[in-house]
Design a protein that fits this description.
The complex is a heterodimer of chains A (386) and B (375). Chain A is mostly helical and 386 residues long. Chain A is built from 17 helices and 4 strands. Chain A folds into 2 domains: 277 residues, ABC transporter involved in vitamin B12 uptake, BtuC, CATH 1.10.3470; 98 residues, Arc Repressor Mutant, subunit A (Orthogonal Bundle), CATH 1.10.10.10. The longest helix of chain A has 26 residues. Chain B has 375 residues and is mainly α. The mean pLDDT of chain B is 84. Classes of the chains: A mainly alpha (386), B mainly alpha (375). At the A-B interface, helix 2, helix 4, helix 5, helix 10 and helix 12 of A face helix 3, helix 4, helix 5, helix 11 and helix 13 of B.
């Protein structure tokens, strides 16, 4: 590994961390698409900033572009407030318009602006180490490393200082307001941080990767934990992992680094989406199947309890009466037998004492309908789950 | 070339005619289907799908090696559909919300697509030069067969729309009711979504991945402001879309260095802004005017009611009072008083006012109606 490679990985990791922090809150606040809008609509800000400063790395340009990001958020909210269209339509209207203005500005001034729309959207991390920051003639490292480092330390500073406020306003805006924290202030603060991060990161990794780095690690982490601190930690580590592994994937394929990092994020999310212990697709589908069988079991037991005559309790009759297919009827019957809820005597099914007790309690639950009670009850009665 | 020259050339020049027709048809079909996306609150789905189509284009190219736009569009269609159904899978099966799912699919697919595109560019044999146009679109590359394809798909859309109109409408506004009536809502849902994906994929070549969502949303959002009827909205959206296409092409053709996609989006956005402001029933301008006139009416009524309370205490209702006593009352201005005089509710005599018979009665009724409502 040479120096440039280490620097690229360092920049990518710092960007990942800087994005994961606001990203976590955006995902929790159901505002993930705002990051997409911001990442597109900073373009006119960048172009105008470039006209003024003539330097892509000037802090003024970053501020101006970030301001466009915040303006986007405000515009979206204004349009939404008129009630003429829904929030998502408002987002979808604002950012393509602003992006188009940016593209046209670039096209009209192609001779003066050394800005490429592709570069804004995709970035080129591989060139980042060549643009060095010189202080008093000494080389202190790549410019983008300094930019993103500064943004990251500001973000971390703000996160530590306002963690409590952020947490409360994210999960309970009403409580936050009643405790005297202004939810609006925190909202716009978060939007500003997201905008600044997007702008700071775009020329290293591109606007689209910024969106991926904000949303994907946070969404993956959200499938694994419901604890905010753990979620932040997981999101950061997912981001850094994808940044570094993505770099090596790009190295191996000789392709875009931003694209590879996103692909790694995608793979990571896919794996977590499928296999997350309690919220992954497989776990959810298994649980749904289990619940279906258990509901059937309950229906079956209720039927038994309601009918004392033997004709109604014959094994074959059940199949036609409750209208279940054979496999399903057998699954339910087996489950009931395994849990000692019924006994089958001469093809006549009857409830055991335990089954009777369970059914009574279940009826009681259905009448009063108290949440979570039925799950506790299942734990008490079931030896085997569906 | 200026705009006039453009319009004189549009019928004779092959390229201009093709592009204009292409963008017009595209605008019409996206506007039509966009109405459904907007009404179903799936506005951002278009954005996600158009980004998600990118890896499909790259994979289709990798497999077939062909630059033929139809092959690439099939790839885009497949990956767009995969993206759409994955979004649905995430929303229904996990606790992640739809915005997160959209953002995820959008950025992940797009990033993967970029990986493939850069990978293709480094391939020695590839004549890959045409793939970039799908990012921002190049209307100039439209040929007649593309326009035919668009026209055929638009026709197909129209037929399906007319055929399933009742079902679509019902499903759109009350999906549960449609289900209870026995319609296969899942099928309708998949049908609408697939057509939206199809329209987006069609537009990729012209407008590009990044701006495609605006083509879907803007005409529909503009049309929504003018009508409350679905059929009118779909029709209007198609017209707005077609005009955005034509005007956008005209403007970009008459200027140097302007790519068509962004200009079409800007034109469509202008339609939206115009509709937001000037639509008679929902528009901001008329809403403000209505608001002001309502407030004026209310103030007038307040003044009248106040006068009534005073007049009530006198035997002769037309007993004159000084205008001064109205001063403390919010509803009173010289203008409202004049209005009341014009309506014959009040007569003025110097600095004195008195209620007329008619005014007294109106005020009494005003009061009564309120009293009845309160009960």
């Amino acid at each position: 590994m040479n120096n440039a490679q280490i620097e690229i990985q360092l920049i990518a990791s710092l960007v990942a961390v800087a994005c994961a922090i606001p990203g976590t809150f955006l995902v929790l606040r159901k505002m993930a698409m705002i990051s997409d809008a911001i990442s597109h609509s900073i373009l006119p800000g960048l172009v105008i900033g470039f006209f003024i400063t003539q330097d892509l790395n000037s802090p003024f340009l970053i501020l101006l572009a970030a301001l466009t990001g915040v303006i986007t958020v405000v515009l979206v909210e204004r349009i939404q407030k008129t009630g003429l269209v829904k929030e998502d339509t408002a987002i979808g209207l604002v950012f393509p318009a602003l992006f188009s203005i940016g593209v046209i500005l670039i096209a009209k001034n192609a001779n003066d602006v050394h800005l490429d729309v592709d570069a804004v959207l995709l970035g080129e991390l591989a060139f980042a180490p060549f643009d060095r920051l010189m202080i008093a003639g000494a080389d202190v490292g790549p410019k983008s490393l300094w930019i993103i480092g500064t943004i990251l330390s500001m973000t971390i500073g703000l996160l530590i200082a306002f963690f409590k406020e952020l947490k409360i306003s994210t999960f309970d805006a009403g409580l936050a307001a009643s405790l005297g924290f202004s939810p609006a202030l925190i909202h716009y603060g978060l939007m500003t941080v997201a905008s600044v991060t997007t702008v700071g990161a775009f020329d290293a990794v591109g606007a689209i990767l910024v969106v991926a780095l904000m949303i994907a690690p946070a969404a993956s982490a959200y499938l694994l934990t419901t604890n905010l601190k753990k979620m932040l930690g997981l999101a950061i580590s997912f981001g850094v992992f994808s940044a570094i592994s993505g770099y090596w994937l790009a190295h191996w394929l000789d392709a875009s680094i931003a694209g590879s990092i996103t692909t790694m994020l995608g793979l990571l999310f896919l794996i977590i989406y499928l296999f997350a212990p309690s919220k992954g697709l497989i776990a959810v589908m298994y649980r749904e199947k289990q619940q279906r069988t258990e509901v059937s079991l309950l229906t079956f037991l209720l039927h038994l309890k309601n009918h004392s005559e033997t004709r109604e309790r014959h094994v074959n009759h059940l199949q036609e009466h409750i209208n279940w297919q054979k496999v399903r009827a057998k699954t339910v019957l087996d489950l009931a037998l395994k849990n000692n809820m019924i006994i089958i005597d001469n093809n006549i099914v009857s409830l055991t004492q335990k089954g009777d007790e369970f059914t009574s309690k279940a009826i009681n639950y259905i009448i009063t309908n108290e949440d979570a009670q039925i799950e506790d009850m299942k734990d008490d009665f079931f030896l085997f789950r569906g | 070339m200026d705009i006039q020259e453009y319009f004189s050339l549009v019928f004779s020049d092959y390229t201009l005619r093709t592009i204009t027709l292409g963008t017009a048809v595209l605008g019409a079909v996206t506007g039509m289907l966009g109405s459904f996306a907007v009404l179903r609150k799936q506005s951002l789905l278009g954005d996600a799908i158009s980004h998600a189509a990118l890896p499909g284009i790259a994979i289709a190219f990798l497999i077939t090696g062909a630059k033929d736009s139809n092959t690439l569009l099939i790839g885009a269609l497949v990956s767009g559909l995969i993206g759409t159904f994955w979004i649905r899978g995430i929303v229904t099966k996990t606790h992640l919300k739809s915005d997160t799912a959209l953002g995820l699919i959008l950025s992940l697919f797009f990033g993967f697509g970029m990986l493939l595109l850069t990978f293709i560019q480094k391939q020695p044999n590839a004549n890959q030069a045409g793939l970039d146009k799908y990012l921002f679109g190049q209307a100039a590359t439209l040929v007649e067969s593309d326009v035919w394809l668009m026209a055929i798909i638009t026709g197909l859309c129209l037929i399906v729309l007319l055929f399933f109109w009742k079902e679509f409408k019902l499903f759109l506004f009350d999906a549960d009711y449609a289900k209870t009536l026995g319609f296969n809502t899942k099928f309708i849902d998949i049908l609408i979504t697939s057509f939206i994906v199809l329209a987006i994929v069609l537009g990729l070549q012209t407008v590009g991945v990044v701006l495609m969502s605006a083509m879907l949303l803007a005409p529909a959002a503009a049309a929504r402001q003018w009508t409350n009827s679905l059929s009118k909205m779909v029709l209007l959206a198609a017209i707005f879309g077609a005009f955005s296409g034509v005007f956008g092409t005209a403007i970009s053709a008459s200027q140097n260095n302007l790519s068509t996609g962004p200009v079409i989006v800007i034109v469509a956005s202008v339609f939206v802004i115009f509709s937001f402001i000037f639509s008679p029933s929902r528009g901001l301008l008329f809403r403000q005017i209505r608001f002001i006139s309502n407030r004026r009416d209310l103030e007038q009524q307040k003044t009248l009611a106040f006068m009534y309370h005073i007049a009530e205490t006198h035997e002769n209702i037309s007993h004159p009072h000084t205008i001064k006593i109205l001063n403390n009352f919010q509803g009173y201005t010289r203008k409202t008083l004049q209005k009341l005089v014009d309506k014959d509710y009040v007569t003025l005599d110097g600095t004195m006012w008195s209620l007329t018979e008619k005014g007294f009665e109106t005020a009494a009724n005003l009061y009564n109606q309120q009293a009845i409502k309160d009960e």
